[in-house]
């Protein structure tokens, strides 16, 4: 009985060791790198809050362009689904799934994809406390609103003819500082608003996260 358990444990240990060695060599050969996501232009044409005893609604109209850069030499990335989550003061006010005309799409190595005129528009009941309402009023006074546009990605990696399983969703935060604009809500892919600072989205780990998930 004891010999059988020892043999089983040794077999499991050997399998785990071989798996780790395989992952290590794949990592060294592939040198996986995460995509770089940048919001290149954005327009906020409505951002108002109605706060009464019977109604506490946030009205919003945000449009933005973004680029996704795949820096890998060997890995291709298939974007299976992209959702945009709008957060303000850590409260969700919007959830938009990009349409089938945009996603899914495949991105080859050393390739950049442009996604233009992504619209996040509507209204949502949001419960703000006194502190949050005070902060909102301060931003009204300054004319600059701090909005967290979160990209929830589901991807599938490809190495040559090898297709890996889906990974995600992973939330990627794009911290926007936006003035209210009187411009048309349609954005031009080639131009950048003078009032908008190009924003790099942080904590992107859809590629390295996929490989590291093999250890868990």
From TrEMBL:
Domain of life per record: Eukaryota
UniProt domain Late embryogenesis abundant protein LEA-2 subgroup: residue ranges: 66-161
Keyword Cell membrane: no
InterPro entries: LEA_2, NDR1-like
GO cellular component: plasma membrane; plasmodesma
GO biological process: defense response to other organism
Main subcellular location of this protein, as a coarse class: membrane
Membrane topology of the entry: Single-pass membrane protein
Membrane-crossing segments per the record: 12-31
Subcellular location: Membrane
Keywords per UniProt: Membrane, Transmembrane, Transmembrane helix
Name of protein: Putative Late embryogenesis abundant protein, LEA-14
